[in-house]
What does this fold into?
Amino acid sequence: MSVAHPEAGPIIVIDDDETLRRACHAALGRCGYQVETFPDGPSGLKRMAEVGAGLLIVDFRMPGMSGTEVIQQARRIDPYVVPIMITGFATVSTAVEAMKAGAYDFIPKPFTADELRVIVARGMERRRLAREADRLRKEKETQARKFVTFVSHQLCAPLGAVRQYLDVLTHQAGDALSVPHREWVDRSRTKITEMLAMIEDWLTMSRIEGGQLAARREALHWGDLVTEVLDTLAEMVHDKNVSLSSQLPPDLPAVLGDRVALKMALTNLLTNAVRYNRPGGSVVVTGRVGPGGIELSVSDTGTGIAPENVDRVFEEFYREPAALTGGESGTGMGLPICKKIVEELGGCMRLESCLGEGSTFTVVLPPVPG
It folds into this structure.
């Protein structure tokens, strides 16, 4: 008979019948399991939050919190927990209800000690396999991120060297370089810059997925971040002949976030709003306290996005057709990076767009607690 791994926590039994609780404790304790019993859902869940649970055995019908409610809350505490439902109403409908609530199996009353031990052993094996599968998945993701980092660094060095060679060639050739040849060199330099930007975005996405970005949490004011980013975009705004302004209310509450990550997300949003705008267009930053948190919106008067592509713009490497972007190109990673940063910080993003008229991207983040 397998025994719960000590790191998994005890088997928690929740039932309002004291006799049944004692029977479960005795039957499982004889096999070496660590068992703790509780008469109701709240006390059992409280203990589970403190020490975890290798497995959860819960009665289907109890005064107050039902078995299905207990299972739903237990899964929020530990997604790996394996719930087993005890029921004195062993019908198809109760079995379906138990499975919908997330129960791995159920035991109809009355049951023997051997029947209980067999089901518990299966549940423990299920938990072990689930945790092992998750460990392997995380290990695979870690190896993939290491590969991305290695390949990216191996690509950046030669690309940077080629760009330097082109710069030296242009400088030394001077007027001897013909106009067509100079155009070829400039195009080559542009393509190299685009490739380096794509590699950097690839690395950024890898860091986000590895939990290496947006790791810090501090109180931040959108107004401060917007001012910093607006200053960095002054030259681009001038070249594109676009007006860029902030209309954030001065009393907008602080959000909980990572300064570097949020600044990166905001820079991507504002850069896109300027880049894909029309000459003489505008970009406006607004904010408010919404029902889901603190909202910051970036609105532009640019090309807009077709309705069928609204959801796709958050996909990695997706780019709108050149005919719809005024010939502007990007890496296709800016918006996915924004979305992942915001979600990592516990927020969400919304997009409203009208083709030919413009778009509004809204970031919603939780306020600072208290």
